Amino acid sequence: MARTILITGGGTGIGRALAEHFAAHGDRVVITGRRPGPLKEAADALTGVAAAVCDHTDPAALHRLVAELPERLDVLVNNAGGQTDFDADGATDLASYARDFRANLDANLLSAALTTRAVDDRLAAGGAVIHIGSIAADQGSGSYGAAKAGLASWNIDLARTLGPRAITANVVSPGYIAGTEFFRDQLADARREHLIAATATGRPGALDDITGAVAFLASPAARHITGQVLNVNGGAYPTR
Asked: Locate the Ketoreductase domain: which residues (predicted)?
């Protein structure tokens, strides 16, 4: 039976790759995001994928989204987020620091919590909630790393809450993944080489590495895996 899958931040990068993967395997997919252009492009290009514009940090927007969703959701992938303060440029005034810190918490932690809460009564028994975390949760990256660490911690409680309904909740935590918008074309060659050198595999991650991990956690083979963080980072370790 075809499943219904909601993927937030599904217009580009990891989210789009996930939509393509699940749709190719016969699932019905709904992708969301804040930018209508990439969403429409992805939905037009992928058979079996519908799109809806939504800011997942906005409760009112989530109420509107839920009204458009199917009554049953088998898989929720909380992928929306990303580093929000690339342009902070080391601002030292307290108001700017608070603004930038809250922006990362909202984008990467609150968005997942609000979305999961909004669709809670539509999550089907035997389903899965999967969040996209980050290696930054373990290796540090300011407010972004703090938000992703908070996501992993919050997920433990979510797994306990959803477990009696036979719904799993896990985090897939990527390292450096090539071919995404995460670094906004600002990753210098030296930094890229540094990230690759930190891996045991000697290569950057690929989108297929993440889609494979998410697909596994959404599959019948992973029904007794919950409350976990699956690191997909090539064995990366901190380097100086």
From this structure: 3-180
User: Exactly one of 97, 144, 176, 237 is catalytic; which is it?
Assistant: 144
CA distance 230 to 109: 17
Q: Is 144 an annotated catalytic residue?
A: yes
Locate tokens 């009204």: which residue? 67
Whole-model pTM: value is: 0.92
Residues in the chain: 240
The dihedrals phi and psi of 55, each to the nearest 5 degrees, come to -95, 110
CB distance 81 to 132 below 8 Å? yes
Residue pLDDT tens, the chain, 240 long: 789 999 999 999 999 999 999 999 999 999 999 999 999 999 999 999 999 999 999 999 999 999 999 999 999 999 998 887 654 555 678 998 999 999 999 999 999 999 999 999 999 999 999 999 999 999 877 899 999 999 999 999 999 999 999 999 999 999 999 877 665 445 677 878 888 888 889 999 999 999 999 999 999 999 999 999 999 999 987 654
Reduce the DSSP state of residue 117 to 3 states and report it. Answer: helix
Half-sphere exposure of 162 (CA within 13 A, CB side): 32
The CA distances from residue 148 to 19, 27, 117, 211, 231, in Å, are 22, 28, 18, 19, 13
- Our CA angle for 85, 89, 94, nearest 5°, is 80
